[in-house]
Amino acid sequence: MAENEEFSFSSSNSKSSGGGGGTGRKGLPKIQTQGKKGSDSSDVCHDDSTTPVRAQTIDELHSLQRKRSTPTTPITGTQGAFFTSLSEEERQKQQLQSISASLASLTRETGPKVVRGDPARKSEGQKVTHVAHPHHYTPSFADSDSALKFTHILYNLSPAELYEQAIKYEKGSFITSSGALATLSGAKTGRSPRDKRVVKDETTEEELWWGKGSPNIEMDEHTFLTNRERAVDYLNSLEKVFVNDHFLNWDPEHRIKVRIVSARAYHSLFMHNMCIRPTPEELENFGNPDFTIYNAGQFPCNRYTHYMTSSTSIDINLARREMVILGSQYAGEMKKGLFSVMHYLMPKRQILSLHSGCNMGKDGDVALFFGLSGTGKTTLSTDHNRYLVGDDEHCWSENGVSNIEGGCYAKCIDLSREKEPDIWNAIKFGTVLENVVFDEHTREVDYTDKSVTENTRAAYPIEYIPNAKIPCVGPHPKNVILLACDAFGVLPPVSKLSLAQTMYHFISGYTALVAGTEDGIKEPQATFSACFGAAFIMLHPTKYAAMLAEKMQKHGATGWLVNTGWSGGSYGSGNRIKLAYTRKIIDAIHSGSLLMSKYRKTEVFGFEIPTDIEGVPSEILDPVNTWSNKTAYQNTLLKLAGLFKKNFEVFTSHKIGKDNKLTEEILSAGPIF
Questions:
Q1: Biased composition, Basic and acidic residues: where in the chain (predicted)?
Q2: What CATH code is carried by the domain that includes residue 222?
Q3: pTM for this model (two decimals)
Q4: Is 658 a catalytic residue?
Q5: Handedness of CA 49, 51, 56, 58 (dihedral sign)
Q6: Are residues 505 and 405 in the same domain?
Q7: Which of 340, 375, 378, 570 is an active site residue?
Q8: Active-site pick, 228, 259, 377, 476
Q9: Residue 150: which pLDDT band, with cuts at 50, 70 and 90?
Q10: Is residue 59 annotated as a catalytic residue, yes or no?
């Protein structure tokens, strides 16, 4: 019994403790407690003296953790004599009615029943706003189950909220060590251009570019509506969908309202980053969108449907202003789908849409950079001495240039802090990292790992770039720079172009990549992409080229062709032109000093090349000087000229300009041999 007594409290010891000192077990000093005089609570030991939390349950405690957002500003401005301001509840109902209309099946009188909020938070006392239908239907055996349920709308969620949704519900979503959200895009890790279709109707048949060389694959209205119905039914069957209302084009006079309906938090965060994010006041006035995307990428299309060639279909209907995605979760389909739409809508307003980078000097001089993958467009347009207007998509209107997007979509393969410090530092909280590989413990990303795909990407808001110009607009461009990585080694490091030459090389969209042949020997392979973005243009390339030449002539812009590829021989025998030399050339273009240089004309292509540039060896400015074998140079030059001519044949049948003089002028600006 003595053992048991050693570990027990005696009543006499308890009474003697009363709030005073004394000793406890084994002679240890007792804990001092303080209670109110005359209260029995003097025997209670408190671990905190603050006021108890105002909650009776854990759920109530959790609800206290989240403060409601500040009420949005009422609509202001002249709204007419009979205008009355809307209450917050009425405004939300109107918003939900608009979303319900977007999700409406074409075979039913009304849209689905929609309710705002996360279904997982219903138990936490979250106030629910829903939209009631104007008609009351008594369920019958003909009704579907989806008509009896509510679809929860997660509307314009913040990045933090989307992180929570992705990590909780989407397998393959993780927070990396830098704070970015790592996601997987499923089986598709890139765009599916052969599965992208456009509805061909009476209007688009006349307006769009169809046939050989065109990226536009036709489909009929009925097939589009079949796929739309499939996508909408899938989205309505879900317990919740994400809805983003955003803008395209930083020019307020010409911006487009877009709505994206998707099933994944990853897609919602991606578009939050890539589009222009509205202010609360702008959302209040948003109303109905100009264009809507239905992203049901987790659900395949029906391969027995007419025109379908796989389980993937990316469909655009310009008359309905809608896009449907089935069978692909790759987020880039949304970005580039909207870019295609802008290539149609903007030229109708006499605004030129461009697949280009754009930066601006401290004095307001703007430069456009065109170039295919591997030409250095991102590297050269990112200049710490200049403001970044945008990295990929722009408009050129009567007001100047404007970025179409609100974010950047950067390649991540082999990314390093040393090579691309701005991109590296932009990969932080809020950024989406697609298909990257990371350490399972530290969550540090290995950008050299291609286990999932080589096309790893980061999507982040443009304000993550320190020298981004916000708002992303600028005056009319002073220089138009066409970049080519010529692996044949015969194009000069820089050439000044006439307007006709600018049009010719803009339409050609040339670069040369190194590709492996069957016997294992690597040799240059010419690549042409009309307007440096053939996959996204809607109209015939000559129409964009004519608009470019008109704007350049009107605003006094100069065209340049800059070769970032090889010199002194083709790939394998020559050397890559040093980046330091190319930067000196670009600096001379920006400063205007290159316009003051002396020029001489080359054979075959007829380029005007400078005889001297500060910081660049004069002998490399004319490529013939760098080839030891002059015969090999001449043969390679003629070979490349022949490739240009062959590529341009597909454009010669399209006549533009009065009496076709403009077309003839463009053709005469090509190589002559």
A1: 37-49, 115-127
A2: 3.40.449.10
A3: 0.84
A4: no
A5: negative
A6: no
A7: 378
A8: 377
A9: confident
A10: no
Between the CA of residue 120 and those of 116, 149, 153, 482, what are the distances in Å? Answer: 12, 15, 12, 52
Q: Are residues 216 and 321 in the same domain?
A: yes
SS3 content of the chain, % helix, strand, coil (to 5): 35, 20, 45
- Establish whether 121 is a catalytic residue: no
> What angle in degrees, to the nearest 10, is found between the helix axes of 499-508 and 630-648?
80
The string of DSSP codes covering 353-394 is EEE-EEEE-TTS-EEEEE--TTS-HHHHH--TTSEEEESSEE
For residue 622, the domain's CATH number is 3.90.228.20
The answer to whether the beta carbons of residues 567 and 622 sit under 8 Å apart is no
For residues 439 and 483, state if they share a domain.
Answer: no
Determine which one of 113, 335, 457, 551 is catalytic.
457
Q: Residue 503 has what pLDDT? A: 96
pLDDT tens profile 437-451 = 999 999 999 999 999
Q: Which of 14, 23, 310, 373 is catalytic?
A: 373
Query: Considering 195, 245, 392, 486, which one is annotated as catalytic?
Result: 392
Among 246, 336, 496, 590, the one annotated catalytic: 336
pLDDT digits (tens, 9 = 90+) for 373-388: 889 998 899 899 999 9
Tell me the two tokens of residue 75: 């609509």
Q: Which of 152, 188, 230, 355 is catalytic?
A: 355
What is the residue-wise DSSP string for 82-104?
Answer: T--PPPHHHHHHHHHHHHHHHT-
Annotation says 264 is catalytic:
no
Residue 382 lies in a domain: no
Structure tokens at 349: 């307003």
392 a catalytic residue: yes
Residue of 191, 335, 394, 590 marked active site: 191
Dist CA 378 CA 651 (whole Å): 29
Give the separation between CA 664 and CA 673, rounded to whole angstroms.
Answer: 17
Give, as one character, the DSSP assignment of residue 572. Answer: T
Q: Is 439 a catalytic residue?
A: no
* Residue 108: active-site member: no
Tokens standing for residue 135: 């008609």
Active site annotation includes 378: yes
Percent of the chain predicted with pLDDT > 90: 71
Which residues form the domain of 451? 155-350+398-464
Is 240 within a domain?
Answer: yes
